[in-house]
Amino acid sequence: MPYLYYVQVFLYNIFLVLYALGIRVTSLFNEKARKWLRGRKDIFRQLADAMQGKDEQRIWVHCASLGEFEQGRPVIEAIKTQYPSYKIVLTFFSPSGYEIRKDYDGADYVFYLPMDGAGNAKRFIELVNPSLAIFVKYEFWYHYLNQLKKQDVPTMLISAAFRSSQPFFKGYGGLFRKILKSFACIFVQDENSKQLLADIGITTNVAISGDTRYDRVVQIAENARHYDLIERFKGDSKLLIAGSTWPEDEMVLREALHILPDDWKMIIAPHEIDDKHIQQLDEMFQDTNTIYSQLPTTHTGHRVLIIDNIGMLSSLYRYGDIAFVGGGFQKGGIHNVLEPAVFGLPVFFGPQYDKFVEAKALVSRLYAFPISKKEHFNSLLRKLMEDDKRRLSMHKTIQAYIAGQAGATAKIMSVLGDKFLQLRG
After folding, report:
1. How far apart are CA 325 and CA 339, in angstroms?
2. CA–CA gap between residue 268 and residue 288 (Å, rounded)
3. 240 contacts: CB under 8 Å, gap ≥ 6
4. How far is CA 205 from CA 63, 180, 301, 383, in A?
5. Are strands 57-63 and 86-92 parallel, antiparallel or unpaired?
6. Spatial separation of the C-alpha atoms in residues 210 and 257, rounded to whole Å
7. Can you tell me the distance from the alpha carbon of 250 to that of 289, in angstroms, rounded to the nearest whole number?
8. What is the mean pLDDT of residues 334-357?
9. How far is CA 131 from CA 81, 91, 152, 194, in A?
10. Alpha helix ranges (H) inside 31-128
């Protein structure tokens, strides 16, 4: 067993080298990869300049990207409220999270996470010197977790969701199981995840908390912004709002345009908002659409509105009647289905949703509808658009369901305070 373990560590290190090399090659033609590299240039100097010599206690919170940040945000803000003496060090692996939240005022420090590796992990932990580390949902970096354990830093995993197909639960998963055993406490979203961990002998430090994203979307709904231009575009019409869409989603939406009843309009907020993609959407929905940045100077007779900025989507859903969430035709899967659901919107998305506990829960209650092709979408959409009574009834029950799932943050904070912070405060 030790021999196999060392082989797995060796292969893991090879993976890290190949990953870093792949990023460098990809950066030659991909802006996101270039940001990944630029953001990590002189990262240890940046960390040292920001933190060395300061007498303060820190909590390190790591998020892979923007979606995980939204899961971690309620916990970050609860810590700042209940334990204001602690400084929050927030790290991201992906530019999608860092570039949008690098100025987030709920954290005291925001950085890219240096690439995993024995040397990098040791240096990072020594510079940050956290009293507690919190990983959100996933990102199981072996060397970081190993170094945290060596330095006796308690580490939590929150809002985790596990599937039997993951390496932890396979015969070859010894290294991955060791990674999981590095956590002092694991908060999972559901009973299935807890049982999977129990099957590999991880029981005493596991608790079902639910998903902190429910808390986050409830906060968003309570503080949703108003947009005069959106109200002007909507007028007396009903709205289908499509959020975080990719080209495959947009083709389905284009084919659905001809079945929209006269009193319905469509808003599309694409995942990528570069000029090239916005132009492609403009051409795809030719003669029927306008673009948000042009709304102040255009009339409201268009049926499709294309959003060409980031930051509006979570509040946009307040104006909707039905939602379509993008990503479901992508390998990575769907984007945030809870953001529209908190406003009571029934949700459509593509077939790649099996990794998402919250999406499966909505589907099982007939609050959400996975679709595999445009004909399927058109049929279901038409029925729902034409049945006002059913849709209004769903609106109330979906809102009640989402509100009933909130509370994960309070469960996590109870353990976090009792077991970690108060003892170290």
Report:
1. 9
2. 13
3. 256, 260, 264, 265, 266, 267, 320, 321, 322, 323, 324, 381, 385
4. 21, 11, 58, 47
5. parallel
6. 37
7. 13
8. 95
9. 17, 15, 9, 26
10. 31-40, 43-51, 66-82, 95-101, 118-128
| Type of residue found at 54 | K
Pairing of strands 304-306, 289-291: parallel
Mean pLDDT of the chain: 93
Amino acid identity, position 116: D
Mean of pLDDT values over 105-133:
97
Q: Which two tokens stand for residue 221?
A: 């709904």
DSSP state of 217: H
Which stretches of 216-309 are assigned E, i.e. beta strand? 238-245, 264-270, 289-291, 304-306
- Residue 80 exposure: Cα atoms within 13 Å on the Cβ side: 17
Whether the pLDDT of residue 59 is over 60: the answer is yes
Count Cβ atoms below 10 Å from residue 324 Cβ, excluding itself. 29
- Report which of residues 310 and 324 the model is more confident about: 324
Q: Cβ contacts of residue 163 below 8 Å, gap of 6+?
A: 196, 354, 355
- Find the helix or strand (DSSP H, E) in which 264 lies: strand 264-270
Order of strands across the sheet with 86-92?
Answer: 109-112, 86-92, 57-63, 130-136, 155-160, 185-188, 206-208
User: Beta-carbon neighbour count of residue 404 at 10 Å?
Assistant: 9
pLDDT score, position 299: 67
Start-end of H helices in 106-211: 118-128, 142-150, 174-180, 191-199
pLDDT, one tens digit per residue, over 377-417 is 999 999 999 999 999 999 999 999 999 999 999 999 999 87
For 326, the token pair is 């993008």
**357: nearest Cα among 217, 178, 212:** 212
**pLDDT digits over 206-249, tens only?**
999 999 999 999 999 999 999 999 999 999 999 999 999 999 99
Question: Residue 104 is encoded by which pair of tokens?
Answer: 């987030």
Q: Structure tokens of 168? A: 């932890």
Kindly state the tokens that stand for 272.
């990528």
The structure tokens 């998402």 sit at 356
What's this model's pTM, rounded to 2 decimal places? Answer: 0.88
